Amino acid sequence: MPGLKGQLHRSLQATRQALLSRLQDLDEYDLRRPMTPTGTNLLGLVKHLADLEYIYFGASFGRPLPPWDESSYPNADMWATPEESSESILGLYQRACAHADLTITQLDLDAPGSVAHWYEGDRQTTLGAMLIMMVWETAQHAGHADIIRELIDGTAGPDHDEVLTEAGWQDYLAQVQAAADAFASGTRG
Questions:
Q1: Which strand (E) or helix (H) includes residue 126?
Q2: What are 55-101's pLDDT values in tens digits?
């Protein structure tokens, strides 16, 4: 795909891959465990994005969706239930992305869509607007996944070792902490 549509699609595909890269080499527990007070976890991020891919590039454009399991769990799209395997959630995401990719390749940027759960006056959209939104949404959650992964096992982004050595990161962290500590007593600021 040439032009703007191709650039947006490639950006979406790259952010999808960035998200998935943060799940590599982790066990079931680490993929599922909540790492923030609001329960953010890696599989939940993937499951949430699968849901959005299906809604924004499927239902919003009148494209057929696969059978959907409406769960009775609260915030069901943000975490993996004990009955769901990581493989099933990753498979769901891959299928959702493939479904979205078909929509993206088959429709023009100005193809009209409608998002049912948006406010009535704001429901009308286009494929181009949805692409921009999903690049942003996926990149945001890929960033969350970066932080979650670093909290789990210290694994930082792919350019971590290119920026500083391990000793350099320790010095950097000490400088950042010292700057924060300057305000800990309440005497600065």
A1: strand 124-126
A2: 999 999 998 777 766 565 567 789 999 999 999 999 999 999 999 99
Give the H/E segment covering residue 3: helix 3-21
Residues forming beta bridges with residue 114, ordered by sequence position: 124
pTM of the complete model beyond 0.85: yes
Q: Give the right CATH number for 3-158 from 3.40.190.10, 1.10.540.10, 1.20.120.450, 3.30.420.10.
A: 1.20.120.450
CA 184, chain centre distance (Å):
34
Measured CA angle at 65 (ends 48, 104), to 5 deg: 80
**Helix 127-153 vs helix 86-106: angle between axes, to the nearest 10 degrees?**
150
Closest CA to 40 of 2, 89, 75: 75
